[in-house]
Amino acid sequence: MVMDRRAYHIVNGITIYRLAVAPVLVLLIIKGQLFLFTWLLGFSFFTDVVDGFLARRYKVTSVLGSRLDSIADDLTIVAAIIGVIVFKPGFLQKEMIVVVGLLVIFFLQMLYAFIRYGKTTSFHTYGAKAATLMQGTFLLLLFFLPEPSYFLFYVAVFITGAELIEEIILTALLPVWEANVKGLYWVLKRNKKRDQPLP
Q: Does residue 61 contact residue 179 with C-beta atoms inside 8 Å?
């Protein structure tokens, strides 16, 4: 199948936009511009959904695009966390143990990937997509609503923690770096099929 070049450039353009906006988000935090920060953060999360949909719809995924998308995701989340530190310090103090626990798992996953592959993973599993969706939903509502939704927070924490553990297991199972892996179930199924003796 021939790749749709226009769709490819649109998808990568959206990803580059999110990369460029991340430092702008941090600048808005420094300037104390909560209103602009919140709306621009929301648009970044929205474009993440859009470029993921377009990439799958037109089958224009690439190794470079996957790596850029992962970096853009991480930078957007980092900007959002900085926003929480500055604009919602009371919430962060209350949930510090949970947040630090997630960060420890995240950095362990990153360290293991660097040891194993020499670079970060770009699996883009279904679990990662679900975690990003829940993180984005919670963070946006945290800035838009007067009180945080603790139900959404703990759902996001559970899904994110499970996804990070899945990535650690996938890193252990996959000897060579791969992009766009659906998830642990599909890798185990593929390995089982590969290991079956020929008739």
A: yes
- Report the distance separating Cα 136 and Cα 16, nearest Å: 19
Task: Note whether 72 and 133 are same-domain residues.
Answer: no
119 and 45 within one domain: no
**What is the SS3 assignment for 65?**
helix
Is the pLDDT at 199 greater than 60, yes or no? no
What is the distance of C-alpha 137 from the center of its chain? Answer: 13
Least confident of 69-73, 134-138, 142-146: 69-73
Q: What total number of domains does the chain contain?
A: 2
Tokens standing for residue 157: 């924490």
Q: How do residues 77-122 score in pLDDT, each as one tens digit?
A: 889 999 999 999 999 999 999 999 999 999 999 999 999 999 988 8
